[in-house]
Design brief:
With about 450 residues, the chain is of the alpha/beta class. The chain has helices at about 10-15, 25-40, 55-65, 110-115, 130, 165-170, 190-195, 230-240, 260-270, 290-310, 315-325, 330, 335-345, 350-370, 385-395, 425-435, and strands spanning about 45-50, 80, 120-125, 140-145, 145-150, 175-180, 195-200, 220-225, 250-255, 275-280, 380, 395-405, 410-420.
Length: about 450
């Protein structure tokens, strides 16, 4: 049997072209992986549904290879996508019971583009319900439809969310790569907790059309992989024109708090090809965290109802809240206060409260990152604040796994988080390759 465990995406792509392995064989290998990790004693609950058309798609791709039709380097690679991304014929549940049977007839724009590139959709991954915007009390990685996603390293650790299933599926190799979505931390945080690479592209770099929304001013879909090399392969396959001529020459270590000795140690021992300057940054203005919540509450109500209208559905946020209230124990066991708060806004994007909050969020986050990225290609942090800033500003960001520090009781996963200027994802990917010693 073809071994996928230690092969890069570039190697698998080359083997597909040379007929060392077929797309059909790859689909069967990944399906067996999914079955193994979805059953006792693993029960990771990373995958929420499988695509019955995957085998047919693979056979068509194999036919293309036989006829010398090469669509892209990604051709024949099977992937899993988060279950808030539309795939024709599959339910888009967002993990909530009200949408368990909500099927769409049209692919999300990013799925259409991946299919045109010859990528095979294996199925959907589990997630925190409504991208972790149903209740503050609900555990990360839990959905009523998919159950509790488990961390494969230490089952009692959180998987984080909301792209929990995508991160877990990536680390245990349930697909060639996976797709998650992020509004604020939902790619980078589960990538960190499960020690995979997660890239959040620039806002609107990947189309939001056909993705069940949380907030259009911050929602972004992005890839999750086991290596920086694989991340680079995906990006170069999609954006062949976006290649950097030279490696990263300068970055700043960007922090809001006291210098972290562990972070400094990791930096010094893992970075050789980039010049790192330590910089303690103190924002010049205050920021109210409630402003971001206000923006998301208004946009969620507005955007979700628009999403259902786009699909010709009579569903709405109000109907989902009412549906949950009929059996809260089964449908909303941890509550739904965030849905109720969003509903109360009316989704009126002309309201001064929304407009003022959006201006505050964008002005603050953008001004901080402009200062942090002055004269450097990337700025780096070991805490989550850079994640939030990049999310609010719409800048690209990345999570680079650095391994487990200590043990289950005293330690935890460590990662480097970095951001770059808009549309400069290639610098983040190159920086990740340098940090991990993968730069060519």
């Amino acid at each position: 049997m073809y071994e996928i465990e230690n092969k890069s995406l570039a190697q698998i792509s080359e083997d597909l072209k040379n007929k060392v392995v077929t797309a059909t064989e790859l689909v069967e290998i990944y399906f067996k992986q999914i079955e193994f990790y979805s059953s006792y004693p693993n029960n990771l609950n990373a995958v929420i549904s499988l695509n019955s058309e995957a085998r047919n798609q693979a056979q068509q791709i194999d036919g293309d290879f036989s006829n010398g039709i090469i669509k892209s380097p990604l051709q024949g690679l099977p992937i899993l996508v988060k279950d808030n991304i539309d795939v024709a014929g599959l339910p888009t549940t967002a993990g909530v019971l009200a949408l368990k049977d909500f099927k769409v007839s049209q692919d999300a724009e990013i799925i259409r583009q991946f299919k045109e590139a010859g990528v095979i959709i294996l199925g959907k991954t589990n997630l925190s319900e409504f991208a972790h915007f149903k209740s503050d009390n609900e555990p990360s990685g839990f959905s009523v439809v998919g159950g509790q996603t488990k961390n494969p390293t230490f089952p009692d650790w959180t998987t984080s969310g909301s792209s929990s299933g995508s991160a877990v599926a990536a680390v245990v190799n349930l697909a060639s790569f996976t797709i998650g979505t992020e509004t604020n931390g939902s790619i980078l945080s589960p990538a960190h907790m499960n020690q995979v690479f997660g890239l959040k592209p620039t806002l609107n770099k990947w189309s939001q059309v056909g993705i069940l929304p949380l907030a259009h001013s911050q929602d972004v879909a992005g890839p999750m992989t086991r290596t920086a090399e694989d991340l680079a392969f995906i990006w170069s396959s999609l954006y062949s024109s976006e290649t950097a001529e030279t490696a990263i020459t300068k970055a700043t270590y960007f922090d809001f708090s006291d210098n972290n000795p562990i972070a400094s140690y990791l930096y010094k021992t893992t970075t050789e090809s980039a010049t790192i300057d330590y910089e303690k940054f103190v924002p010049s203005t205050e920021f109210n965290d409630d402003d971001e919540l206000t923006v998301i509450l208004y946009e969620f109500k507005h955007d979700l109802d628009d999403y259902f209208k786009m699909h010709g559905s009579e569903l709405s946020l109000e109907k989902i809240v009412d549906f949950n209230n009929q059996d809260r124990d089964q449908r909303a066991p941890f509550g739904q206060e965030l849905l109720e708060q969003a509903l109360a806004t009316g989704g009126d994007l002309s309201h001064p409260r929304y407009a003022n909050a959006l201006t505050s969020v964008k002005d603050y986050s953008t001004s901080v990152l402009i200062a942090a990225l002055k004269d450097v290609q990337v700025t780096v942090s070991f805490d989550a604040q850079v994640i939030g800033l990049a999310a609010m500003a719409g800048y690209p960001s990345i999570s680079i796994p650095m391994g487990i520090l200590g043990d289950y009781v005293t330690g935890g996963p460590t990662s480097i988080f970095a951001t770059a200027k808009p549309d400069d994802e290639i610098s983040l990917i190159q920086f990740a390759q340098q940090i991990k010693g993968e730069h060519k």
